[in-house]
Amino acid sequence: MSGKNQIQKSVSELRQDLVSGDWVVIATxxxxxxxxxxxxxxxxxxxxxxxxxxxxxxxxxxxxxYVSPNLKNWWVQVVGNKYPAFxxxxxxxxxxxxxxxxxxxxxxxxxxxxxxxxxxIAEMSAKEVEAIILAYKNRYSEHSKSECVEYISIxxxxxxxxxxSISHPHSQIIAIPVVPPDVGRSLNGSADxxxxxxxxxxxxxxxxxxxxxxxxxxxxxxxxxxxxxxxRSIFEVRIFPKKHNPYFEDIKTEEVKTLADILxxxxxxxxxxxxxxxxxxFIHTSPTKDxxxxxxxxxxxxxxxxxxxxGGVELGIGIEILxxxxxxxxxxxxxxxx
Length: 338
Prior knowledge:
Number of helices: 6
Largest sheet: 10 strands, antiparallel
Structural class: alpha+beta
CATH topology: HIT family, subunit A
CATH class: Alpha Beta
Distance between the termini: 48 Å
Number of strands: 15
CATH superfamily: HIT-like
Number of domains: 1
Radius of gyration: 21 Å
Strand order of the largest sheet: 3-4-7-9-8-13-14-12-11-10
Order of helices and strands: EEEEEEEHEEHHEEEHEEHEH
Shape: globular
């Protein structure tokens, strides 16, 4: 480098999340074009004959808690997980084990299964996705009444790299007596921002993104999907309601249709643009108790394609290194024809 006043371009940049305060590193010099990250291997399909979700009742999952439209010609049904992480227990007794605290894993663990053995949500119609969202909403509303349930997590794993051990499309619902750490950090960050700035952090973020438009992937009249300015993984996409709402369960009937539209189209762009990658999506919403304390929060869906693998840097210091700018990822996905 010659000359004291010459400024060398940085090889990367750090971006800080407004809600959690977490930092990520963006180092685009380590990457190739966005489509370099297309999945090279297609997820192996399990034979229909050996699939436990082809006929859940025959596979001893028990009677469904929810079914649409009816059991004989069902499209969606919700059943208990045969290997639950949460179940019957006493959620009100906190015990000590030396310096540690423990509580029963009291709660619920259910599967939301769709009828088609092969078609992922990206390949379904908006009407079919609407039925899935209605099932989510029904079970969320039901479990929120339990005194043992503090938080309800709805999530979907697609592909082996995302932890989907059964290829037949299905989501999971867990209702638990504590607020998970990641959600807790998000809630605390949102509350801290409101206390300091007298503004809701997600409203500030959405206002900025809607004006910028550079990270928008798709939008309709009620929802917008975007690649976050501070993405935690390449091609991360989040779906936000345009109107402020702390609770997923409070979405209106007409919003179910537009949520189905944006979820299906966003996943379809990821499916086609990245050649059917593994991904996880989950709903971040406010806890079921003390509803009056969470007006600062904004429920949303986070979609995390598994297009990269964590190495020593990420695991060692806990900071993700992104090799594709969120702006480039959004432009790429936006251009995918569906």
